[in-house]
Automatic annotation (TrEMBL):
Superkingdom of the organism of origin: Bacteria
Protein name: Sec-independent protein translocase protein TatC
Organism, scientific name: Arthrobacter cupressi
GO biological process: intracellular protein transmembrane transport; protein transport by the Tat complex
Gene behind the chain: tatC
Record bears the keyword rRNA processing: no
Transmembrane recorded as keyword: yes
Compartment(s) where it occurs, according to its Swiss-Prot or TrEMBL record: Cell membrane; Membrane
Taxon lineage: Bacteria, Bacillati, Actinomycetota, Actinomycetes, Micrococcales
GO molecular function: proton motive force dependent protein transmembrane transporter activity
Amino acid sequence: MALLDHLKELKNRLFKSALAVIAGTVVGFIVYQPLLAALIKPIKDLNNSGGRLAALNFDGVASSFDLMVQVSIFLGVIIASPVWIYQLWAFIVPGLHKKERRLALSFVAAAVPLFVAGVLLAWFVLPNAVRVLTEFTPEGGSNFISADIYLAFVIRLLLAFGIAFLIPVVLVGLNLAGIIKGQQLVKSWRITIFLVCLFAAMAAPGADAMSMFYLAVPMLLLFFAAIGLCLLNDKRRARRQAKVAEETEATADVATSSADLDKL
């Protein structure tokens, strides 16, 4: 297509994605109250543990409304993720070959559930993370947490887990593209384990280190599963290259017929 046609198609797909996000945001407004109650619950639970005083603080007249808008939009983006990811894929697909289309679709099909699984695991870890981080409050102190700061903390935690679960998918994609090989990942397994545990300790701290294992163990399993897929793909690629080389060598010494020479 011409450039203007590409821009027109991009505009249409962005419009469809925006409609999906708006619809998801409306759903976010509807479920905002129970969702906010679930978000605040870890803070309320602090009042029942250790005699500490904790509360979510709204430091402005419109702060509560701003929080509702931010939470609803964030939830709308998550709800509409299958739509805008598909629109992005559909915009790129016409420029890909048939095999590349299958790879792109497989990447999207694997990325969405893994990202959602990471977000759900972060939601499970959130109460423990809030409890541990507020334990550093000096004796006699109180935790009056700003709503904006708390929301930013929750979003960072959810995104950290979601993106962490996407890294193995990216590794497989790089291997399919021929950028990295499975043997390279196997050789760096020690540094991989160290980096995964370090990331898990920073993203999900816990008093008994259990929250770290909640993130580290699934990540390590996904990493080693990705390494296995990369090794299988390398073997498949090597067999295909060997077959092409054999066919080329078999036909290299065959004389060209006079009829083919006349055509040339």
